[in-house]
Amino acid sequence: MTRYVISQTVLLSVVWLLFSGMWTYPVILSLGVASVIVTVWLVGRMGLLARDTEVLHMIPAALRYWPWLMGQIVRANLQVAGRILAGPDAIDPRIAQTKTLQRTHVGRAIMANSITLTPGTVTLRVTEDHIEYYALTPDLVDDLEAGEMNRRALRFEEGLS
Fold first, then answer.
1. 69 and 101 inside one domain
2. Any idea of the CA torsion for 82, 88, 94, 99, to the nearest 10 degrees?
3. Which domain does 45 fall in, by range?
4. What is the pTM for the complete model shown?
5. Do 143 and 88 fall within a single domain?
6. Residue 86: which residues within 8 A CB-CB, separation 6 or more?
7. Residues 121 and 76 occupy one common structural domain
8. Same-domain pairing of 65 and 129
9. What is the pLDDT along the chain (161 residues), one digit of tens a residue?
10. Which residue in 1, 17, 20, 107 has its CB near the most CB atoms, within 10 A?
């Protein structure tokens, strides 16, 4: 438990410092420290401090997954922009489902968030074995049905254990 408290405190502190950029203001820095302490305390009180919440072991798997996901985001951006510039007839929105390969809540969350981060798609509902999503074009449905994101999210999940 102590290891999880320390890793969460360090991680949240680093993230807060990087995102806030408030290195020289003592009052704001002390409020940042207080917010990290309260957050870790609340997570501990909720009983959520465990290996699933320790993100330091996720770094190697994330470094393999995130570059690929960033490429998919750029590719989908270009695809959606092209459809928008082509006019309203080029957009054919639909709701679809994909079967999930992931076995854990964390794995399904990674997959669902990856779908939502990709432009033109939004996750609507996650169940034990399917993810329902909105897609702006049939091409985006085809990409998800091809299963590459699902397989990579599964490898990311497996890299977490």
1. yes
2. 0
3. 2-53
4. 0.72
5. yes
6. none
7. yes
8. yes
9. 677 788 888 888 888 888 888 788 889 889 999 999 999 999 888 887 776 556 667 788 889 999 999 999 999 999 899 998 998 888 999 999 999 999 988 889 999 999 999 999 999 999 999 999 999 989 899 999 999 999 999 999 888 76
10. 107
Per the listing, tokens 């034990």 go with 128
What are the tokens at 64? Answer: 């393999």
* Contacts of 119-126 spanning 24+ positions with Cβ under 8 A: 119/73, 119/76, 119/77, 119/79, 119/80, 120/76, 120/79, 120/80, 120/83, 121/76, 124/95, 126/100
User: What is the torsion angle, in degrees rounded to the nearest 10, for the CA atoms of residue 113, residue 115, residue 102 and residue 40?
Assistant: 0
Cα–Cα distances in Å, from 91 out to 68, 77, 132? 25, 14, 19
